[in-house]
Design brief:
By secondary structure, this protein is of the alpha/beta class. The protein has 2 domains: 12-90, Winged helix-like DNA-binding domain superfamily/Winged helix DNA-binding domain (Arc Repressor Mutant, subunit A, Orthogonal Bundle); 99-298, D-Maltodextrin-Binding Protein, domain 2. The chain has 10 helices and 11 strands. The strands form 3 sheets. Strands 3, 4, 5, 6, 9, 10 and 11 form a 7-stranded mixed sheet that branches. Keywords: DNA-binding, Transcription, Transcription regulation.
């Protein structure tokens, strides 16, 4: 019900809006509850309060999913703007005015999938820090760090190796990715899509195939994640990918499919030892992002 015009309009609670946005972005009340550090029942009460204030339903719920209603989609844009303005205002008074440029390196896979979200949120809380990104292979990024051409870099390492001075952010299984309903894994020799030399996922995959004595051919080679995904989804080849990288059109192939286990890999971060305040701020933000991912499975 709309509020009478002769009464002041109610104020929306920013904490409730933060919860609303978290649910909209994750598609789950439980996952959103973890992200905002509340119980699922508390989150449900917040949304009921929001819907009572607005007199509209903002989510359509069924047994398996949560989706925005038309009113919810409209509210989402306003909620994001209000939260952004709040961050900007609070940062002016609470967060020190850190100014500077940070040179950040990342492998292509995380540069494409994760960094855009990370840097967007960082820019909202630290508008005076510019982040210049270099995308390259881990072996080249390590060299750039050694040459002091980067302030921070992310690196992917085999589970058997670790970079000196690196902080492990994530350890995750590498799986064989194939097209949903595809048959590439049944072909002989096995068509494989791989990255160039120096990739931790490539090394683990080839070692696994060699250990099992499986005949294979490198049917597709690309230095970019998008190229690997294209080969998988077209059922031209199978490819080693982190489990969290599987999309809706992909499946994980295992022993029942005749595919050998690959193992795990580490995603690590190296920070310059003489890190400035802006560099430390970026590093802390990256750490927080991966802590959230380990808890919720969402970036």
């Amino acid at each position: 019900m709309n509020a009478p015009l002769n009464h002041p309009l109610p104020l929306l609670d920013l904490d409730v809006l933060r919860t609303f946005v978290a649910i909209a972005e994750t598609g789950s009340f439980t996952t959103a509850a973890n992200a905002v550090f509340r119980t699922p029942s508390a989150v449900s009460m917040q949304i009921k309060k929001l819907e009572d204030i607005l007199g509209r339903s903002v989510f359509a719920r069924d047994a398996r999913s949560v989706t925005l209603t038309t009113d919810g989609e409209m509210l989402l844009g306003y909620a994001r703007r209000l939260l952004s303005i709040n961050r900007e205002v609070v940062s002016k008074f609470i967060i020190p005015d850190i100014v500077g440029v940070v040179r950040l390196g990342s492998p292509d896979d995380y540069g494409e999938r994760v960094l855009p979200h990370v840097l967007k949120r960082f820019a909202q809380s630290h508008p005076s820090i510019a982040v210049d990104v270099t995308i390259d292979q881990s072996i080249n990024l390590r060299r750039r760090m050694d040459d002091r051409a980067l302030d921070i870099t992310l690196l992917t390492n085999s589970y058997k190796t670790s970079a000196i001075g690196a902080e492990v952010l994530l350890t995750e299984p590498i799986v064989w990715a194939g097209a949903k309903g595809g048959c590439a894994h049944l072909r002989e020799p096995l068509p494989v899509s791989l990255w160039e030399e120096g990739c931790a996922w490539r090394a683990g995959a080839l070692e696994a195939l060699g250990r099992e004595g499986r005949n294979y051919r490198i049917a597709y080679m690309s230095a970019h994640t998008a190229g690997q995904r294209a080969a998988i989804m077209a059922d031209l080849a199978v490819a080693p990918l982190p489990k969290s990288f599987l999309g809706d059109e992909m499946v994980s192939l295992g022993a029942k499919d005749g595919m050998p286990e690959i193992g795990t890999y580490n995603l690590a971060m190296v920070v310059a030892p003489d890190a400035s305040a802006p560099v430390k701020a970026v590093a802390d933000h990256i750490r927080a992002t991966f802590e959230l991912f380990r808890e919720t499975g969402k970036f």
